[in-house]
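Reposting from the mailing list since nobody answered there.

I have sequence plus structure tokens for a pair of proteins and want to know whether others read the tokens the same way I do. The first protein:
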Amino acid sequence: MRYMIFSSVVASQKQLLRICISALHIFVSIFSTVLRWTAGECKNTISPNKHRDEKTVQSAIPTSVNYHFTRKCNYKCGFCFHTAKTSFVLPLEEAKRGLQLLKEAGMEKINFSGGEPFLHDKGEFLGKLVQYCKQDLQLPSVSIVSNGSMIKEKWFQNYGGYLDILAISCDSFNEETNQLIGRTQGRKNHLDNLYKICKWCQQYKVAFKINSVINTFNADEDMTENILQLNPVRWKVFQCLLIDGENAGEAALREAERFVISDQQFQEFLDRHSSISCLVPESNEKMRNSYLILDEYMRFLDCREGRKDPSKSILDVGVKDAICFSGFDEMMFLKRGGKYVWSKADMKLDW
């Protein structure tokens, strides 16, 4: 009888031990899986492409960053893919803190955009950021993209010395076409502003650049004569791009479908202007994942899926963690010529 009881107790203990060991195995397995997920989260989120070099992605450096610090704009361009969904602008000191983080992470070039960057605080906020980046952070290149409508000569007098490149968006040299596109406000003449700003850039030693979005309204236009006359350091020519939630889809503030052109139409425009040496073509394929874009909250925007999916703010998690969720393809950035002579000190321009 005692032997039976003893055997039963031993058997129970062995069974309990097996249960404990089994539970331990399960716990270790779950814990290991969580660790793998945590370690691989950045890699898996960056790119669904299994053939992509994950080590290269993880070590991506924010060499060139586009900071859209405001979404507000005084123009209503029908194809705009960064629309006024919010009116938020970071406090100046917070914006400077973010720029400092980017510099520490390897940023060499900052491009301020919008919206219309000269609209907020009549350009003073922008001017202070430009001065900070060149004077305090000593970045090799500081640039701006603007529609040109709000720029005054006094701004050049105060801040022009800190600016390397000023890009003005101009989609047509026909004022009626600009009005059809929505690149207009009241009685302001977009082309008059363009030529005036070109002269100011020459006067205050700022490299002048032109950006054009090619769409159904200007695809057949020949801009050769005007571009040669203005002589920009670069003429960036974009293919009209649809971004869900921005200029396409139910939640969008614009309906850009009627502006979209085919790849063939875009190529025909490029062929027509092939004699212009400063032309830099940007097809939809090149644009989607070769830009590092920061929104008004300093979140990187991932555009690979045809929309803008935000990361967490670099102010909260730092640049290294946030850039993992940017969808940025550093190889495509280099392939499209994203790194060029972008400091006016190195351009050797004839002022």
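The second protein, same order (residues first, tokens after):
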Amino acid sequence: MTNKKTIMFDINNILRSNIKNLKPYSSARDEFQGEASVYLDANENAFGSPLHTSYNRYPDPMQYQVKMRLAEIKGVPPRNIFLGNGSDEAIDILFRSFCNPGVDNVILVPPTYGMYEVSANINDVETRKVNLTDDYQLNLEGIAEAIDKNTKIIFVCSPNNPTGNSINRDDIETLLANFQGLVVVDEAYINFSRQKTFIQELTEYANLVVLQTLSKAWGLAGLRVGMAFASEEIIEVMNRVKPPYNINEASQQLALEALQNTEQVNNWIKETLAERDKLVLQLKEFDFVVDIYPSDANFILVKTTDAKGIYTFLVNNGIIVRDRSKVELCEGSLRITVGTPQENTILINTLKNFK
């Protein structure tokens, strides 16, 4: 793959024909926008909800207020933002919009986030796997060899899950400049990274889709709000394919409230990074720790002499980590999320008793 030889990307070359002709469902809230005193258009319960807060009205199908606040934070217009029921919904919609079942393929770069493959399997789309290199970077030659005329999407997770490292920025730009399908950069952990977001490159690469989430640094995993940032034409396709009310009213209201508290989130990020560095130093003292890989995320991948034994020992002591020892290139490794100072202390003190 040569670098920076930007190809002409045309969305119509990769969009499924049935999606090109799709007439989306028109909801009551699509047909009327604005304020009224009497709503008798959507067959809602006019009396309210049996709750302290009323949720009897359908939510804004395009989540406009949340997108306006995100636009201020991210520095990108609302028309370039898609909101989904977690990033997983955005991933699924990309498959359903651009990949013909039983015909097309996507490229995955293991070890990586497992939902790409699950979503591919659900949508009957072939996955072509090109393992990361030994230092967990892209194998550009291998990717170039795997691409054919039916390759629609390349998924790159950066910072990567489960390895924690950021993927070389120049390598991602090489993919963007040379591949005629979509390059999806999943930045679920970008808030913890020293690398800058790829959102800033949206105007340069028409085939770029950036995924982010409110589940990690923002602490809203229970609300299920994921984001995709892309060109207006890609976002327009995703909005056509999504269910009309994919983000519920409670999630919209609470997300909007949380998005006012950037200072609190930034303080948590700083504390998490300090705790991560401390945790690495403490874990290195144990004889059963073989290696700890560099992390740009809120977790660390720890190579051990007995991953299964340590995992079982921790479970028996009420501590849950993730055993990644069966994942390619992660043999013998545990993925450990950085907890609060108290939780991290409990982890270290418990491990002192592991024989």
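Reply #1 (J.P.):
I read it the same way you do. The chain has two domains: 11-258, 263-351.
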